[in-house]
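Reading a protein record of the kind used here takes only a little practice. To see the layout at work, look at the sequence and tokens printed below.
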Amino acid sequence: MTIEITDSNFEEVLTKNEITVVDFWAPWCSPCRVLGPIIEELAGENTDVSIGKMNVDSNSNTAAGFGIRGIPTTIFFKNGKESDRLVGMHSKAEFQAKIDSLK
């Protein structure tokens, strides 16, 4: 199950596990809605990784801080620092490969 990430809990989520994956999305974004189930599956299969979703409409501070200009944007963090990002729709295998490369 994915974590609901907000401006207020973002830092806490980053420190929970060595690897964190944040999907920046919005409810009106069609590609974001398609990506949602893939992110959920990844969260269920990677229990040692914090995987969550951040609604950019209601959490604009963090999104702006990371320069999110297009959604969906998924940022991969290791030890609290950004290590990679994917913008747009990608396959589950591509997301898993990014996660595996950080382990």
